[in-house]
Amino acid sequence: MSFNNLDTLYRQVIMDHYKNPRNKGALSEETLTLEMNNPTCGDRILLHLLLEGDHVKDAKFEGEGCSISLASASMMTQAIKGQEIKNALEMSAYFSNMMLGEEEQSSLEMGDIEALQGVAKFPARIKCATLAWKAMEKAIDQNQAED
Q1: CA-to-CA dists, residue 30 to 16, 44, 51, 105, angstroms
Q2: Residues with Cβ < 8 Å from 117, sequence gap 6 or more?
Q3: Is this model's pTM higher than 0.85 or not?
Q4: Which CATH class name applies to 3-146?
Q5: Residues 55, 56, 57, 58: what is their CA dihedral angle, to the nearest 10 degrees?
Q6: For residue range 89-143, what is the model confidence (pLDDT) as tens digits?
Q7: Are 44 and 37 in contact (CB under 8 A)?
Q8: Most exposed residue of 21, 47, 62, 65, measured as fewest CB within 10 angstroms of its CB?
Q9: Which residue intervals define the domain NIF system FeS cluster assembly NifU N-terminal in the entry (predicted)?
């Protein structure tokens, strides 16, 4: 597949998650909730995580922002649901490295998230893409500190 076709496909995946976000809304059960924002562009994410043992049982988000921010939140919640917490954190580390343009091999199944790799070419948009991931890391860190 040529670069232009791949770029077009990635844009379509991002716009699909933006226009049809997966896991948008609140969870009905008592959850771990964390709000983060990106003051430079106005993105705001309210992340809801339901942790059960060492797994992310469910994940949803609310908020507003640009297409990159909301698509990333949609992709992230879809990817971490059902994962062990350590795998969710490994995914986050991999994603952060991908946003920095650092190539690394991973056995993690990232799915649609790979579509965001082009964001690395636009430094001003990296914070948009990583907002939900940073919220997930912070929420898990706070939860583990309380245990």
Answers
A1: 29, 21, 10, 36
A2: 10, 98
A3: yes
A4: alpha beta
A5: 180
A6: 999 999 999 999 886 777 778 889 989 988 998 899 999 999 999 999 999 999 8
A7: yes
A8: 62
A9: 10-128
